[in-house]
Amino acid sequence: MNAIISSIPRLFSLRAVILLAAVVFALAGDQLVLVGWADRVLFSILGVPEGASPASILSPEALRGALAGRGLAEPLWADIAVTAGLAITALYLTLAVPLMGAAASLPVTLLLGGSLVVLQAALMFYHNAWVSLGEVLTLLVAGFVLMLFWLQPHTRIRSLTDNVREARLRLARVFLQQGHTDDALEALGGCPRCEGELELRYDIAIQQERKRQYDKAVGTYQSILQRRKNFRDSAARLAALEKLTPDSALMQAGSFDTTRTLLMPEPSVSRPTLGRYEIEREIGRGAMGVVYLGKDPKIARTVAIKTLSYQAFDDGQLQDLKERFFREAEAAGRLNHPAIVTVYDVGEEADLAYIAMDYARGRPLSEFGKPGRLLPLPRVLDIIARVADALAYAHSQKIVHRDIKPGNIIFNPDTGDIKITDFGIAKISDDSRTRTGAVMGSPLYMSPEQLKGQKVTGASDIYSLGVTLYKLVSGETPYQGDTLANLTYQILNKRPRSVREFNADLPNGVVRLINKAIQREPDKRFASAATMAEAVRRLAVREAGQEVS
Fold this sequence. Notes:
Elements: H1 2-11, H2 14-28, H3 33-46, H4 60-69, H5 78-100, H6 102-127, H7 134-177, H8 181-188, H9 197-210, H10 214-227, H11 234-242, H12 246-249, E1 273-274, E2 277-285, E3 290-296, E4 301-309, H13 318-333, E5 343-348, E6 352-358, E7 363-364, H14 377-396, E8 409-411, E9 418-420, H15 425-431, H16 448-451, H17 458-474, H18 484-493, H19 508-517, H20 529-544
Antiparallel strand pairs: 1-2, 2-3, 3-4, 4-6, 5-6, 7-8, 8-9
Helix pairs in contact: 2-5, 2-7, 3-7, 5-6, 5-7, 6-7, 7-8, 7-9, 8-9, 9-10, 10-11, 14-17, 14-20, 17-19, 19-20
C-alpha cells in the first residue's frame, strides 16, 4: 500500500500529464474545442474567405467546409504528420526543456511555435493543403507553461542532488587518501553514476591490491566491469587476481606468517604497500618476519622495512605485544648515531607491524663469520670497537639491543661503514614466546641472564658482542647444541669452547678479551661497552700494530 501511495506523485507528475495530453490530442484532438480554437486562430491569421469570421467556425465540420471553400485539402499523410509532431513536441517538453532550463528553452519554444505557423502558411499558399497543426501548437504552448512550474523545484532538486553526489565523491576521495577503502566504497554507494565514479572505484581497487585485500579487490573490479566492460585494465587485473595460487591467496591481510613474502608472482597485481611505503623486493628474512626494500614515494627515500608478524604470537598477548612494540620502536627512533640504523617510521596493518628504517648498504657480518671467509683481524677489531661505541651510546639512552649478532651488523666492504640494526625488536620477540621452549631471538649469542628470563642490562649486549667477536675470528661459537634445551644447558652450566680450538694463531690478547666479554656472571665482564671499546683499541695497537678508529 505504501508503495502505491508513494508512486502517485510520480504517476501524476507534470511530465506524465504532458505525455497523456499528447496521446489524447493524437487520438481525439479534432474533437476538442480548445484545439479547434487554435486551428480557427491559425486559419484567421493566414487568411479566411472574404466575409467569414473565425467565430463562425464552431465545429470541425464547419472548419472543413471553410477549408473546402478555399480549395484547401487535407493530405493523406496529415494525421501521421500531426501524430509525429505531437510525439516530438512531447519529447521536447519532457526531456529537452528540463536539461536546457527555462532561460535557454524559452527562445527555442518561441522558434518552434513560429516555425509551425510558417509551415502552415507554406502548406496553404504553395500546396493548397491544410494540416491541423493547432494540436501541436496547443501542446507546445500549454505544455511549456506547465513545464515552467515544474522546472523551478526540479532545478533546485537537481542542484541539491548534484551537490550531494559531489560531496560523496569528495568524501570517498578523503577516505581513500586515509586508506579506508571500505568507507570509500560505502560513500560511493549513493553515487552510482557520478562523473569520475569509475575512476575512483579503480583507484580503490588498486589500493585494495596494495593492502593485500585481494577478495575485496576482485569485488571492486567486478563492479567496475558491470558498468563498463573495457574500463582501463580492470579486466586484466581481475584475471590476474583470480589466477593467484592458493598459497598466494593466503597472503591476504590477516593470513600473513613469517615464511611468506608480501610480493605476488603475478606481474599484473600491484605491488603491496605498508603504510605509505611501496614494497619493491625482499632483501632478507628473520625469525619474526621478512625484511623488504621499500620506497617512500613522498620524498623518494629508499628504506628497509622489517615486519613483525602477529601470527607468531598468542592472541592473549597481542595487545601487550603491540604496546611494547611501539614503545620500543619509539625509543629506538630517538637514537642518533652514525653506526646505528636510523628508524624513520613505525606502523601496523591488520596482520603485522613494521618498522621503516634507513637502508644500510652492505652485507651482514654473518657472511664473514664462516671458515675461509673471515675478515683480517685488524678489520674485525675495528668493527668491534665501533660497534661497542654505538652500544655505549645506546646504553646511555637507556636502550639495550638484546640481539647483537653478526646478522644484525651491516658491513660495507667498499666504504668500511657499519650499521647496527634491529634495536628494540628482540625484546618483543623474546618476551612473547608462543611455543613451549621456543626463543625467537638468537640463543647462540644470548647471555645466560637473558636465557634465564632475568632483567637484561647493557652487560648482556657486551656478552653478545663477545660471542660475535668469537664468531668473526674463528667461524664458530663458544657453545653448540643439537637442541635449544641442550644449548641452553651448556651456556648456563658448561665452560665455553676455547677459541684457540678453531684459530690456533689467534693472539693471546684477543683470547683474553673474548673470555672476559663472555663471562657467565655479568659483573665479571667489561664494566661498560665504552670500556670494552677502549680495550679493543688498546689490543689492536698492541697485537696488530695498527690503531683502530
